[in-house]
Amino acid sequence: MERQEGPEFGTTGGGPAAAAAPEAAPKTPLRWKDLPMEWVRQVRKERNGNARSAAGGMGLSEVASEEDIATFVAAHPDSAEAIERQRYTNRLLAEQKAHRAPGEVEEAPAIEAAEAPDFTPEDLSVAAHNRRKAELAQTVVPQPASPLPPEEISAPSVAKKPKTPRKSRKKAKAPDAAPEASAAPDSQPVTLGQLPPRVAETLNQQVVLAGLFGGRPFMAGDTVPKNALLWLEKRGSLTREQLAALGYTETPTEEPKQEKPRSQEVSPEERIAAARTWNELAATIESIPEIQGSQQTFTGEEMANIVRAIARGELDSTYATRALGIRDKVEGLESITPRPLPPVPGFQDTIPPQPGQERPPTPEEQLEAARLGLEEARAAFIPQHQAYLKSRREKGFLARAREALGLGQKESESELPPELRAAKEAYAQAKTAYGRQMYALARAEHLAAADPNLPEREQTAEAYGRARAFQSIFVNERAVLQKAEAESWTPKERGVVRKGFDWWRRRGKVTRALLSTAALTGVAFATGGGGAVAAGIFAGSRFVRSLIGMGVGHLAGKGFDRFVKKPGAADEKAERRVAELRALYAKGGEFWDTVEGTRAMEEAYGNTQEERDREERGRLLGKAIVMGVAAAGTGIGLRWLDQAWAHSVAPVKVPTPGPTPAPAPAPGPWPPDNDPRWGYTARMPVPNPAPDATPLPPFIPKAIPVPDATAVATPEVDNLWAMVRAKLDEQGYIDGLDTRGAQNNLIGTLYQKFVHMTPAELRSIGVASGNVHKIALGAKIDLSTAFDDTAAVARAYEHAGELSLAQTLPIEADASALNAFRVAHPGTRFTEELANRLIRERGH
Amino acid sequence: MDIGQAAGANIIRELGIEALPPDEQREAVDRAGALVFGAVVLRVMEQLGEADRKKLGELFAAETTTGDELLAFLSPLVPNLDAIVAEEVGKFKSEAVDFLDAVAKEG
Asked: Whole-angstrom Cα distance, residue A438 to residue A341?
């Protein structure tokens, strides 16, 4: 379907008529939640100095002022049309709602009961709203990844696209797909502006409420699909003569699809349980006004946003409430639904070729083409695979008994029907083709961003490409296939499989991680044959304990040394954790044989490992900045036990920066600006550099993500410097910098934010005295002003490796050392070089 | 990669997981473990009668069921349980390595 974009899209709201005469229509209000979240955060931050403080600024459901929207449109001119559509959609929805009696369930107009869609009007409203929002976000902010995993990859896609023509093909079509009509050679494109206003309005109501034609209302300049015209004719809105007058003469071949109505009696729990995809689940939850959790109450919107974050992999499933079966559903989806593909930088910046101009497809386009090929091959393979599994199962007890006795083969390629074999092979080839594209793209992305002088550059790029292909394709496809296999059973048996997954998830993340690593590293088979193999998967308690024991042993060896060698508070904490774990382990068999003992061990072990992860993350982040390297590939090793028994794997080499690491010119920012792996999600538009532009500077983060920026003054941490340090330390950012001077430089630059505050500003963040040097014990200080200050953070990291301490940090510990030197060597000219040397000596 | 050899091999390096940040490493490993477990359950289901499948579902559903109890239930009913586990682990690993080798070969 083609939508023509005309100049008539103004900045008012109101739809096609308004588009034609902007000043005639009143502006339909937009809420903040209708606008891209990145921009909302930015506005909040500018107003409140704290982007995370939802309560401190405008609520998402509040109406955005026209002034704000005008500012937004001025900054993002491309958004004008999307804004206009959003206004129009809001107006249609509001009108539809206004026509309902209290308690009456909304119905899409003119849809016969038997044809009504398989979702409630509330769902449709939410879905339409979300589509608008995604469209708007795409227009304004380059966000390579969809906010939710692609629907089409999830299980229902299996039936979406049969390869060979079948009678049932029409039924498999998505309800919001644009129906296709055979084009009449003499038919002319008809735009919405050509239709009578009443007819145009009716059509758009249908589009928005039933989610037809992509759920996107037509504007005056948009071409109206032929089937939409025919539908209007059928319902009597347009006569055949009117159609002919518009230049359209075709007869209907297919009508907009409507599906059966969902029962109005369905409870929220049932609707949640019935959700098949992340999008469905989020939309269902969003339509629930209030959800009472065990500890707090959520609005549907809040919980839907949490679910979306879980779907994107940004949050753990434990953030979802158990109420209404939401967490169970989330965990179920996690186990079977593919994750979204990794972001493809620059994909949306691809410039379409001019008419008549040809160019080779970009890597991103090749990737997309390969993905579509895989979709098609999978859709052809899975139904045949399911049918084959069913037929095998029907062989009955004898076949099962033979297999149980090791006499039968589960599946032999040569025994497969030729058609299935061909489909399987095509699927495998398509998977490989897609994998190659993704591998090449990820590898190239890594190479482009990595320090050219890094010896391991090629190796780490290859590893990165492999990891991406493994996670995004191999694991996802396995999950889809497994779900299809489960679906080849009857619903009752499917329930057993689902309960099996629930049971696995209840094992706890530490046990799961131990067992999964044991399987991938082969340790499950190295620790003894026989029952140990099965125990390795079914989590026999002794097996889990033995794994933890190996982990403890590993921590007591080289890994432990490396872990605790560095000085500083974070290492002391890590050492304490390891000591706790070892003490627990030393309690021996009687203690372990209790459920509490095993759980305590698991918890202590998990905490220890997480401590290490934090330390590692901070260290790499710092190196990435100081050295300008692609640190993601520098070999951090698998934290969960692999090195304990990595007999077949060469040790991972971690490159050590030289004493004066000079930032190497990098061709682009690293990590990518929108890469959530690094703990921040700045997704502001980045202008494309000119082809011959000088290399971009090394990556500078936009902010320091700190989950809780509030610090409490204690006798040990009784000043702002120490508070900033402790907070950075807590998150592992301090150890990310290689010298004490660099650490202090980072802390000090952030600290300067407070030094320059007025007494009133200091009081507003919790410094009651208004004096930066007078902090009362127990005072709770909000440090987010510094951590969220883009300029301060950028400055801090820019200077972190330069050791210009003498100029910028005449404060606290290092300053006292410099002063001591000054006193001891009166008359010595105090240069930056000298300061650097002194600080280096202190730092090592 | 041969399935029998793959079961006992350490394929962490072949998967490239060490190139990912720690949280993604954990996620990748966790998902792999869940898939292997799911494959084993599906294989086991094939060998159980209807009543035993029902009983297995009850065991899975009970909050207190331990891995040892599951093993005690399954072992007499599925004498080749170890072989199934070994085969499914090996299959996952060999297919993953073969896939990634093919992908990287011409990537």
From this structure: 10
The answer to whether residue A444 neighbours chain B at the CB level (below 8 Å) is no
Q: What is the mean pLDDT of chain A?
A: 61
ipTM of the shown complex: 0.94
Residues of B in contact with A639 (CB under 8 A): 22, 25-26
**Domain coverage including residue B51:** 3-105
Among A477, A537, A616, A677, the strongest candidate for a mutation testing the B interface, having the largest count of B CBs within 10 A, is A537
Per DSSP, A471 falls in state I
Number of domains in chain B: 1
3-state secondary structure A304-365: HHHHHHHHCCCCCHHHCCCHHHHHHHHHHHHHHCCCCCCCCCCHHHCCCCCCCCCCCCCHHH
Q: Which residues contact A636 (CB under 8 A, 6 or more apart)?
A: A616, A620, A652, A654, B18, B21, B22, B25
Q: Which of A177-181, A294-298, A543-547, B14-18 has the lowest mean pLDDT?
A: A177-181
Contact: B60, A502; criterion CB under 8 Å: yes
Q: Which of A435, A493, A503 sits opposite B103 (nearest CB)?
A: A435
d(CA A255, CA A114): 14
Closest-CA residue of chain A to B37 = A537
**pLDDT classification of B87: cutoffs 50, 70, 90:** confident
> Smallest Cα–Cα separation from A601: which of A579, A574, A575, A581?
A581
For residue A517, which residues of chain B lie inside 8 Å, CB to CB? 12, 29, 33
**Minimal Cα distance from A471: which residue of B?**
B28
Residue A612: exposure state from Cβ atoms within 10 A (0-12, 13-18, ≥19) = buried
Q: Which of B60, B22, B84, B20 has its CA nearest to residue A507?
A: B60
Find out whether A232 and A238 touch, Cβ atoms under 8 Å.
Answer: yes
Higher pLDDT, A213 or B45: B45
Best residue of A516, A521, A652 to probe chain B, by most B CBs closer than 10 Å: A516
Question: Rounded distance, CA A259 to CA A462, Å?
Answer: 48
The tens digit of pLDDT for each residue in A191-233 reads 888 888 777 877 777 666 554 555 567 777 777 777 777 767 7
For chain A, which residues make up each domain, given as ranges? 268-336, 340-347+360-506, 507-669, 710-843
Q: Do B99 and A485 touch (CB under 8 A)?
A: no
Tell me the H-state helices in A211-267.
226-234, 240-245
pLDDT, tens digit, 9 for 90 and up, residues A279-335? 788 888 888 888 887 767 788 888 888 887 777 766 777 778 888 889 888 877 776
Q: How much is the average pLDDT of A498-509?
A: 83
Closest CA to A44 of A30, A62, A58: A58
Q: Which residue has the higher pLDDT, A777 or A217?
A: A777
Yes or no, beta carbons of B107 and A465 under 8 Å apart? yes
CB contact under 8 A, A677 and B21: yes
pTM above 0.80, yes or no: no
